[in-house]
Design goal:
351 residues, alpha+beta, Nucleotidyltransferase, domain 5, Gyrase A, domain 2, 3 domains, five-stranded antiparallel β-sheet, three-stranded parallel β-sheet, 11 strands, 22% strand, rod-shaped
Length: 351
């Protein structure tokens, strides 16, 4: 199927408008000069090998009988003489540079004696200075152009470009060929479609990649947030456990201290349990242990007397009983444990 038929009409019109504005513009001339300089830097062998320029065959109007010889594969250019067209030099504000063709088309009846719908015209920008654009307007009657193209077709010539020869013999570098008669290179159309399809595919893949990357970044951010919250929860639980253990230990110590007899009660009970012929020389209370030593008339009977003390448990002698020559009494040393009420241990397993 011909690619010309597969290109939508709006796209064809847009491409034709771009090509028409490109022909003869300052940018095209600068581009051609730059390409010429680049070709001059390339060796002749490589330049001939990689050069893919399409040959151009120029035909001057009117066609001389018996008709032109058309070269196969060459770009056919029809060169019109100056008297067949209308050429005007204009000055427009620089704001008109956005769309010169439309701006000039709105006021075409000011520059030509014909309305816009009866003309084919091209607008070329020649330069700018002091806020003004130097414009060249080239126009031709539609009826005259259609007759020229019909006569060319009768001679087997299908122009791919219509230019105008200036008075000094040089072409103006424009294209007056109507959009309807402008051929579209099939290979160019295919290449453009391939480029467009490839660009769409690349953009789609890039969009999917960006979407996946964004999703991955969000997922990583959520995972990092969850991990941070888990660490905070674990820290809170650890602090809660430490607080519980501390409260339990404090409660245990308070209950343990409350279960032990006071120092005054212990001294009072020892005074009551020990006989009057016994006195103490040393008394030590260490945690739950009580150690004391002294002299007594009957030291061996002290164990029985101490068993009646509610504050002491398991009294027993430390070492042997020895007589004291100075006092005539027996020297002893005893050890016992403090009696205390049952107290619950601290619960350190409660979360």
């Amino acid at each position: 199927m011909n690619s010309l038929l597969s290109v939508p009409a709006p796209l064809r019109a847009y491409l034709a408008n771009v090509e028409r504005r490109w022909q003869g513009s300052v940018a095209q001339r600068a581009w051609q000069l730059w390409l010429a300089e680049l070709r001059g830097c390339v060796p002749a062998r490589l330049r001939q090998r990689f050069s893919a320029q399409v040959p151009v065959q120029t035909h001057r109007w009117p066609i001389v009988m018996p008709g032109p010889e058309v070269q196969t594969g060459a770009r056919q250019v029809l060169m019109l003489p100056t008297p067949l067209v209308m050429i005007h030099r204009l000055q427009l504000p620089t704001a008109a540079a956005r769309d010169l063709t439309a701006v000039v088309g709105y006021e075409l009846d000011k520059y030509t004696p014909y309305p816009r719908d009866q003309l084919f015209y091209v607008v070329r920008q020649d330069g700018r200075s002091a806020g003004w654009l130097q414009i060249t307007l080239i126009a031709i009657l539609r009826e005259r152009m259609n007759a020229i193209l019909a006569e060319c077709g009768a001679h087997g010539l299908t122009p791919q470009r219509v230019d105008v020869c200036a008075e000094e013999g040089t072409p103006l570098g424009i294209d007056l060929l109507p959009d309807a008669a402008r051929p579209l290179n099939p290979r160019t159309g295919i290449d453009r479609r391939r480029v467009l399809a490839g660009s769409c595919a690349v953009l789609l893949i890039a969009l999917m990649g960006l979407w996946l990357h964004d999703r991955q970044q969000r997922l990583q951010g959520m995972r990092a947030t969850v991990q941070a919250q888990k660490a905070e929860v674990a820290q809170v639980q650890q602090l809660r456990q430490q607080l519980t253990n501390t409260l339990g230990a404090a409660d245990y110590l308070s209950r343990h201290k409350a279960a032990r007899p006071t120092m005054a009660a212990l001294m009072s009970e020892l005074t009551a349990c020990l006989p009057d012929d016994t006195w103490l020389e040393q008394l030590e209370i260490d945690a739950d242990d009580v150690s004391f030593s002294g002299q007594s008339v009957r030291a061996s009977a002290l164990i029985g007397r101490l068993n009646d003390c509610r504050s002491l448990e398991s009294p027993q002698f430390q070492g042997v009983i020895q007589p004291d020559a100075a006092s005539g009494k027996e020297r002893f040393a005893l050890h016992a444990r403090l009696h205390q009420e049952a107290a619950d241990g601290p619960n350190t397993d409660t979360p």
